[in-house]
Amino acid sequence: MAAIASAAPAGGSPSPSASPAQSGTASPTPVPLPEVATASEAVAGQLQAMEAQDTARAATTEVQNDLPALKQDIDAREEDTKQAATPEAPLDALRDLQGRWQSIQGQLAGWMQKLTAGAARADADLAQLPALRTEWNATLNLAHHSSAPPEINREIQGVLDQIGKTGDALRKSRQNILTLQSAVAEQKQRTDAALQTINSAQAAAVNTLWMQDSPPIWSRDLLTGARADFLANGHASMGAQAAQLRTFIARDWTNLVYFALILCAVAYSFVRALPKVRQRTEGWLDEDPSLDRAQQILQRPYITGCVLAFLGSPVLFPGAPRLFWAVLAVVALVPITILLRHLIDRHLYPFLNAVILFYLLNHARALTSGIPVLARALLLLQSAAGVLFALWFVRSTRSFDGNAPSARMARLAARLAIPLFAVVFITNCLGYVALASLLGTATVTAGYLAILFYAAANIVKSFLYFALQLWPLASLELVRRHRPLLRRRIGQVISVAAAVLWALAAMEAFAIRKPVIAGAVAVLGAKRTIGSLELSLGGVLAFGITIWLSVMVSRFIRFVLQEDIYGRVGLARGSSYAVSTISHYVILLCGFLLALTTIGVDMTKLTILAGAFGVGVGFGLQNIFNNFFSGIILLLERPIHIGDLIDVSGGSGVVMEIGIRASRIRLADNSVLIVPNAQLISNNVTNHDAPSSQAQITLPVRVAYGSDAKRVIATLKQVAGAGPQIARTPEPQVLVADFSADALLFNLICSTDDPGHADQIKSELAIAALEALAAAGVQFPAPRLP
Questions:
Q1: SS3 of the chain: helix, strand, coil, percent, to 5
Q2: Model pTM?
Q3: Which among 545, 469, 415 has a CA at the least distance from the CA of 294?
Q4: Does the pLDDT value for residue 223 go beyond 70?
């Protein structure tokens, strides 16, 4: 369009509007009349693109549709916040309120960002319209002065009308944005105010956590005000929560539908796969009984699907009210309980039932947080029941000698719950209600999360265990050979991950995750300057972890190469060792360089230091570097391989290892000769196995004159052919070697695939030849006299 607007009029003569105006500013350049048709199409396309790409309209549509429901949700939440956000409120209830308000705040911030971007886009489009209108007005004047055909005038006027319509649409869209921005800003102010109220209540609750915030349980004042408090706050609190739930369902009913569809899809897929799973697992269970627990999970598709769907529900319902989560938790407890009953021992059923019952009481207390007296009574009941149950459970399982992890963890949890519930009961009675509520809720939440993560971890383990039995993993050689080892390692990784996630969630329940993480970051981040290098404990730990990870990665890669790759590509003997060793060195080097960056080492300075260090080391450690690079040459050039039979200064033996500095050679007497790599490169070395993997055996045989030479040759070939360690290819040969003064000399020439025991095989072959020749009546020459 810019090219069209700046083009000169056809014919080379200036247009009337091209002369300077009396004001001294340049007049707009009209579109040349022969180019009006083409230019009008371009402008029409540009204006249509402005309307089609009107991000302002898209932003306003979303906000206009969702803002009324969100406003109703905010109205209901404000009432609940007024009831619950008090200094006497439990910290867990305040955190729950804070999370939901933060979810609304994030949604409003996203809307405001979209509206701002839409307004900016509308302003940018509107800024282009005056220049277009001026240009086409000048073109219309040119057409009038040039007596252009009526069709040209109508074309130009149509462009001007379209510019006006587009401007009106953009201005209307921008006006809607400004209106919605005001409405969103108003709701954001309410959200910020609610969060400020909650933050103030949290600060007050933390400050009064160790203070007596209520009368003791035996106080008359507490009993006198209990009825009035219950009647005054009960109806308002429950009414506000019910209003929140209705608003949430009206606004997010589509997510509820998605949740149901996901649940049905997961369960249906499990049901469809169940017959195949049963058919395949019958033989697997006979071979490996440890898969029984995994089969128990997969044979309950609906229950497994419910548990997985519940774990993913926070993604679909980030801002759901407390009443919704209470209902969903109660519903989810049914499949979780059924599933866990097939994963734990029968004597642990009471522990599971108790944790579930306490968790339901927790939700009941959360729903009645606006009624302090009722919430305090439920907490008192919960803590007393917790102490009694934990004592009974420890006593009843004392004689049980269970080594299962679930049994050990259940007894440990019961022992820890006794003092915790006792503290909750005592502090609640004394009037430290905030502290008691925090400890009681956190204790039960930690127990519930433990069984939830335990169930989830077992489900994931089951999927992965059976995946190892199915294609394509089952086709891998390393899986077929090391399936129990892989299952053990996978189980350990999943268990550690579940334990870490549970620890983070449990610390959050006790309200100590942020201070613990902040303290750990402060300790790990404390730096100490050593010369020009700043070290910290976190950097040193990161350095060590990086080195450890590089070693683990190297071991895993070499394991995969050895078990599954080399056998498929058919590498020659020794080549696989060279590839594994060089890969090991490269990975360790990269890991070391990466580890240096974690402690703050500047790699540019490291290059200079490495050059200077190399010069110094080149003189001081010349032999070591000579042996190191000689080892690299041996691995790359491969004049000798692992398993080769070689003669080197110091002895003859089989190469066992080509190390970073020296190589190890096993001698005939099973002793190990350590040879520096430089000697294998610079000295003469005889390789009896190059280029094949066989060793040749030459056995000289002397027989007396008069013996049948053909019988001797046949007997020796028969002996060689009967030897179990003698190679069939190439075939053994017997040749007449010499005619001595007193005997006829034969050489039995054969090969063996075991070069390391060639001397022993030769000895056994000589004994067998002696016995066979004697049995065949072959005479041996008399021994020579000195």
A1: 75, 10, 20
A2: 0.58
A3: 469
A4: no
